[in-house]
Task: inverse folding
């Protein structure tokens, strides 16, 4: 259902390196790149994640209430991705754990303050 998602950045190179390292752990690679954006995909369903310089030329701002959720393989994958975020300079918005029965997630902000999560569904 989702074709792609985009978060803003003021530094395409710095954010590109952050997401190259993080999304590599999700078997994703850069599939598109222009002067103002970079997009990654793992090819499994065609969905892409992208970063973009603001089209209006103004400074990037964070969307209040906006979050992108990235699907992890399992609980260990959530933990690995969360630790990678912290090692890359991202910040925690919620350590890995169950939020509701069957839903395991970790929340973080990237280098630009965009809020994301990594999650998986766990059957009992």
Result:
């Amino acid at each position: 259902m989702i074709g792609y998602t985009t978060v803003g950045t003021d530094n395409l190179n710095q954010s590109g390196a952050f997401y190259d390292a993080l999304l590599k752990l999700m078997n994703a690679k850069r599939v598109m790149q222009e002067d103002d954006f970079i997009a990654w995909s793992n090819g499994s369903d065609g969905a892409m994640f992208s970063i973009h310089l603001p089209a209006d030329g103004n400074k990037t701002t964070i969307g209040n209430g906006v979050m992108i959720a990235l699907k992890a393989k399992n609980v260990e994958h959530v933990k690995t991705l969360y630790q990678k975020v912290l090692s890359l300079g991202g910040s925690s918005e919620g350590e890995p754990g169950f939020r509701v029965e069957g839903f395991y997630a970790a929340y973080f902000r990237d280098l630009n303050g965009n809020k994301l999560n990594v999650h998986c569904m766990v059957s009992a």
Observations:
- The chain has a mean pLDDT of 94.
- Residues 4-55+66-121 form a domain with the 2,3-Dihydroxybiphenyl 1,2-Dioxygenase; domain 1 fold (CATH 3.10.180.10).
- Strands lie at 4-8, 29-33, 37-41, 48-52, 68-71, 91-100, 103-109, 115-121.
